[in-house]
Amino acid sequence: MSAKKKSEFVNVGDVILKYTRYWKWFLLSGITCLFIAIAYLKTVDPTYLIVSNVKLRTEAEGAKIASSLVRSFGLGGLADSDNIDDEAAVMSSQSHMRDMIYELGLYTTYDLKKFPFDKSMYNTSPLVISVDRSVMDTLSMPIKFKIDVKGKSVEVKAEIDGDKVGEFQFNSLPADVKTPYGSFSLNYSGKSIGKDSYTIEVFLSGLDYAAEKFRSRIMIGAAGNSSDIISLSVRDVNRERGKDILNKLVELYNIDAKSDKNREAENTADFIKERINLLASELNDLEKYLENFKKQNNITDITAESTVFIEKYNDLQEKNTEIDIQLSIADMLENFISDPKNKYELIPTNTAVSSNALEAIRSYNAALLERSHLLQNSTDKNPAVVVMNEQIGLLRKNVETSIRNARKDISIRKKDWAGLEGEMQSRMSEMPRQEREYLEIERQRKVKSDLYIFLLTKMEETQLTLASTTPKAKVIDGAYNIWKPVAPRKMITLGIALLFAAMIPILIIYLLDIFKTKIASKDELEEATSVPVLGEICLDKNAGNVAVAEGVSTSTAELFRLVRTNLQFLMKKDDKVILVTSSVSGEGKSFFTVNLALSFSLIKNKKVVLVGLDIRNPKLTEYLSINRKDGMTLYLASDDMKPEEIIIHRPDLHPNVYVVPAGPIPPNPSELLLNDRLEEMFTYLRANFDYIIVDTAPVGMVSDTFCLDRISDITVYLFRANYTNKSYLKLAESIVEEQKLKKLSIVINGTTTKAAYGYGYGANTGKPK
Question: How much is the mean pLDDT over the chain?
Fold first, then answer.
């Protein structure tokens, strides 16, 4: 009997009906949420999406800009980007973000205090605060400056994390605001806001803090899977600031890429220039010596007989010249590398004497560039820089080894050619001494001259590289904003407001249902208990104390008839006595008892008696306006009073209705109800009446009703909607389980008309009395 009944199906109509009772709540919630949403849309600054697209120049595109000769020697090429994601990461790197923040002054935000919302200012503030970058690099927590301007008087309060760190007052600007975290310069910007007195709040953040804040709002990535285009976007309430951010990031990226490309070319130009000056001096000395030699020996031309031999000898000399050039270049590289002042200088790549040496030089130069990047945001003591220095040392040794190996190879070839040259020279011994000396001088001059011309060519190529360096990132679309704000979205905001308008009342009603302690309807009662529920009685303000009468078909009267019918199904043929009880007083027990008796009296030729046995708190007499002082208590206390003496006929209610009042309140109600005369009374009533309706005391307050089980046939336990506590359901179930009262069933009283299953018989609403 204690098992709870569960509904197997959800009646959607009942659910809707339940919530429509609270339509005023939904209306109020809708108005409130829409007001908040509209106020939000009117006051919040719209957020715009600012977009920019850049294309990375590829190696092929760089070749169109630089000369083919320069490209053939490996100079002036544009840095190729094999991985767009890597270049996007470089563009959004912390170092670039820090530089962008500092150059645009985004480490400070200016808010003009005004009601009801502050106004953010970008490049429009009448006051500006400037600070050295060294302070910004070390500032770990944001500083808040509250600046009150009243005419020429300026009052400044500085705070960090709510703690005051300084308070200043100035009569003129510029002025220095000195705090424990650094000195800040305050000055007028020359821009006006149209009034002399105002308050501005300035938030000044360290570069790292500001960079992280803006970095989270900036999106940088490849436009497509196989595209060389990088797309940049940022969301900002200030369109001009968003455009400045994207344009500055692209500018800094190009400057950095151009710097990397030019450093190697500039270092190469310096190296070649030094060697050209040295060779020019040596050539000048050789040419003067040759001039003097010709004058002294009166030499004007080479003899015709030696033309053929000289041509062969010249071929050999050209090969020797080539070997000497390579040896000279190797000597230059060795001198350059061994010079301590060139320890971290880039080595020219176009002067390598072998492919292995060229590869080693390129690896060494790449390491030097990486070390230079690290030193931009750190010092020599940085562990990463120390490791890089060790790596550069190893790469430098590798370059030295490669050059030495190349020099050995060249020396071996020179030795071979020297042997051939010795044979030629032995043959030249037959030539005149002047011609041999002339050729020797000419050979030396030619070597120097060829090397000089070679270096001049390289110098021009290097200068061409520097002149033809173009930005790595070509701007396709300069920063522009999408015309329609991305936030707040009006329709989405209003939709969310309407959703909340619906959800808030539903949630409140749901929570009230969870936490409420009162029974509200017949359905709730049936779900909460396994005790049979006979029916419900709705409110009827216009019914008064008597809701049931001949010809009356209100919803309340019909519900009483329904309860009567359900009771008849439970009653056996000889059952006549119906006990009516409840949990506590105030649940409408007297109203229910009277009208239940009237509903039974409407049955043809059926006499009904209404017995008042709530002798502790008799309300039935008052309810029916009975002035007689006698009743059940006097009968039970007397030995000679007869039952018919206390029965009152009430034809004003109905010809078939009779009443036995409770009588005066006795001093010993429990003992009085145990009197044997009670059985005698009910024996008489059973013999003379068809139905006996007994008004008893509430079982949740006293135990008197349990004494009446011996004279009863069936029990009606009354609950009142939104009044009776749910805890009394356990009491009703325990009465059934312990069989303290016979055939107990429940009726819920005081439900609303809407819950009365649509009875449409003049839906009078009222409260039972």
Answer: 81
Is residue 741 predicted with pLDDT exceeding 80? yes
The per-residue pLDDT for range 498-526, each reduced to its tens digit, is: 999 889 998 988 887 777 788 888 888 88
Rounded CA gap, 3 and 473, in Å? 77
- Please say whether the beta carbons of 523 and 14 come within 8 A: yes
How far apart are the C-alpha atoms of 327 and 48, rounded to whole Å? 65
Is the backbone of residue 526 left (phi > 0), alpha (psi -120 to 50) or beta?
A: alpha
Q: What type of residue sits at position 549?
A: A
Amino acid at 520: A
Residue 481 phi, psi dihedral angles, 5° rounding = -105, 145
Burial class from Cβ neighbours inside 10 Å (0-12, 13-18, 19+) for residue 24 reads exposed
Non-local CB neighbours of 425 within 8 Å, separated by 6+ positions: 436
pLDDT (tens digit per residue) in 618-661 = 888 888 888 888 889 999 999 889 999 999 999 888 999 999 99
Helix (H) or strand (E) holding 590, with range, is helix 589-601
Question: In angstroms, what CA-CA distances link 245 with 125, 524, 626?
Answer: 18, 63, 93
> pLDDT tier at 426 (50, 70, 90 boundaries)?
low
DSSP SS3 for 444 = helix
**Structural domains of the chain in order of their starting residue, each with its CATH number:** 12-41+500-515 (no CATH), 48-257 (no CATH), 262-472 (no CATH), 524-755 (3.40.50.300)
C-alpha distances (whole Å) from 369 to each of 82, 260, 267 are: 18, 7, 12
E-strand stretches of 425-492: 473-481
- Confidence tier at 689 by pLDDT (50, 70, 90): very high
Centroid of chain to Cα 17: 38
Q: Which of 749, 293, 311, 723 is nearest to 563 (CA)?
A: 749
User: Rounded to a whole number, what is the distance in angstroms from the first to the last CA of the chain?
Assistant: 33
Query: For residues 235 and 217, is the Cβ–Cβ distance under 8 A?
Result: yes
* Sequence-separated (6 or more) residues with CB below 8 Å from residue 685: 576, 577, 609, 611, 643, 660, 692
Residue with tokens 């709530």: 614
Residues 718, 580: Cα–Cα separation, whole Å: 7
**Burial of residue 285 (number of CB atoms within 10 Å: 0-12, 13-18, 19+):** exposed
Contact 139, 220 (CB under 8 A): no
Point out which residues pair with 751 in neighbouring strands. Answer: 538
Q: Give 21's contacts (C-beta < 8 A, 6+ positions apart).
A: 752, 754
Contact 532, 518 (CB under 8 A): no
Q: State the Cα angle at 160 between 156 and 162, rounded to 5°.
A: 95
Residues 432 and 408 sit within 8 Å (Cβ to Cβ): no
Helical pair 383-428 and 355-376, crossing angle rounded to 10 deg: 150
Please answer whether residues 673 and 704 qualify as being in contact, where contact means their C-beta atoms are separated by less than 8 angstroms.
Answer: yes
CA distance 484 to 49: 8
* Neighbour count for residue 113 (Cβ, 10 Å): 14
Q: Nearest-CA neighbor of 442 among 281, 275, 299?
A: 299
pLDDT digits (tens, 9 = 90+) for 375-401: 777 777 778 778 888 888 888 888 888
Instruction: Report CA Rg, the chain.
Output: 55
| Strand 143-150 with 473-481, pairing | unpaired
**Would you mind telling me the total number of residues written for the chain in this entry?**
769
**Which pTM value belongs to this model?**
0.53
**Contacts (Cβ under 8 Å, ≥6 apart) of 177:** 129, 145, 156, 158, 166, 168, 183, 184, 185, 186
Task: Kindly give, in sequence order, each residue whose CB lies less than 8 Å from that of residue 364, ignoring residues fewer than 6 positions away.
Answer: 347, 392, 395, 396, 398, 399
